[in-house]
Structures are given as structure tokens and as C-alpha cells.
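User: Here's a structure from my thesis project, written as C-alpha cells. My advisor, Dr. K., wants to see whether a designed sequence matches the one we expressed. Can you design one independently, without my sequence as a hint?
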């Protein structure tokens, strides 16, 4: 009887703990100001360089949406392939990206290197105070990661376009590489793809 009583208390304690965890996970997160994330170095405090951080984060936001579109395409290809080893027996069929989503992903992919090049030339211009040279150099170095990200996106986009019908598994390695490069570049500019748990209202 003592053992059974302990088991009941243990289950009750587990349920209470689980309920508390779910409630805290579903609590609406407080809004944080857009500038709360620190930029590389002290550039966030320098008005002359702050615009570069904003532009780089905008590029990374566009690229994140593009990678999510690529993920939807991969899921669609896997779920509709006649024979696909990555597909699970109970997996549902995914819808493909819409035409507008795919066009936007292609536009971002094709334009990212040019945008990164413009940012790099703006960051490395000579018309800044000599006291900012460390932050200026740090931002220029971080901009180089955007070049690598542009190349990784383009490699996946070009590869998947040439693949025959099927699950597109031959392009998965390139997609993983693009995601990894996004993480590297985003870390340099003080952001991440982490999101709070979504809960029903």
C-alpha cells in the first residue's frame, strides 16, 4: 500500500509539473525591442555603422524565408515521390510552395550576392571617423559570411532545378550546407532562427 501511495503521488507530481511546464511554454512572450540584440562589436552604438547592421539583418531575414521555402519544396518532393527512402509510412502529402513564394525565393537567391557586395563596399568606404576602424573592420569581415551564404543558396537553387522528378534527395546536402551557412552568418550579426513555442490562443 505504501508503494502504491508513492506511485500515485509520483504520478500526481509528474502531472502537476508537466502542466506547469506547458503553461509557462505557452505564456505569451513579452515584446522585446528590435534593437535589443547586440550587433558585432560596439557598432550598435555607432550611428555611422548602425545602418549596416540593419541592412545585414534584413538580408538574413529574407534569406531565412527563402530557406523555409526550400524546405517546403523538399518536403513536397519527398511526400509525392513514387519511391523515397526519407519518406515515413504515415507522412502526409505536402503542398508545394506557391508560385509567388518560389519567385520570391529565387529573387532573394539571385540578388543576395549583389546586396552583400554593395554592403561590403559601403562598410569599407573611407569616409568614417578613424576611431571606428575596429568596428568597421569587424563589420566588413562579417559581411564576407553573406557572400558564402549567397553561394550556398545559389548552389542549392541551381541543383534542385536540374533534378528529375523524385524526392530531390540529391540536393539535401546542399540545403543543409545553406542552413549551416545561415547560422554562421546570423551569429556574426547577432541574431538566430530560434523562435518561441507557438500555442493556441
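Assistant: Designed independently from the structure alone:
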Amino acid at each position: 500500500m505504501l508503494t502504491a501511495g508513492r506511485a500515485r503521488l509520483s504520478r500526481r507530481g509528474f502531472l502537476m509539473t508537466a502542466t506547469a511546464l506547458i503553461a509557462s511554454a505557452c505564456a505569451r512572450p513579452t515584446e522585446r525591442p528590435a534593437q535589443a540584440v547586440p550587433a558585432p562589436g560596439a557598432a550598435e552604438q555607432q550611428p555611422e555603422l548602425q545602418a549596416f547592421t540593419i541592412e545585414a539583418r534584413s538580408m538574413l531575414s529574407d534569406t531565412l524565408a527563402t530557406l523555409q521555402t526550400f524546405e517546403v519544396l523538399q518536403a513536397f518532393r519527398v511526400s509525392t515521390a513514387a519511391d523515397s527512402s526519407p519518406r515515413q509510412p504515415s507522412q502526409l502529402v505536402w503542398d508545394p510552395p506557391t508560385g509567388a513564394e518560389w519567385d520570391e525565393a529565387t529573387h532573394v537567391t539571385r540578388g543576395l550576392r549583389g546586396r552583400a557586395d554593395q554592403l561590403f563596399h559601403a562598410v569599407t568606404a573611407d569616409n568614417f571617423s578613424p576611431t571606428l576602424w575596429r568596428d568597421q573592420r569587424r563589420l566588413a569581415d562579417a559581411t564576407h559570411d553573406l557572400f558564402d551564404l549567397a553561394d550556398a543558396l545559389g548552389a542549392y537553387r541551381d541543383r534542385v532545378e536540374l533534378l528529375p522528378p523524385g524526392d530531390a534527395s540529391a540536393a539535401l546536402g546542399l540545403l543543409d550546407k545553406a542552413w549551416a551557412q545561415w547560422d554562421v552568418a546570423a551569429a556574426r550579426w547577432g541574431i538566430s532562427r530560434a523562435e518561441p513555442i507557438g500555442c493556441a490562443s
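When you compare it with your expressed construct, this may help: Residues 1-44, 195-201 have pLDDT under 50 and may be disordered.
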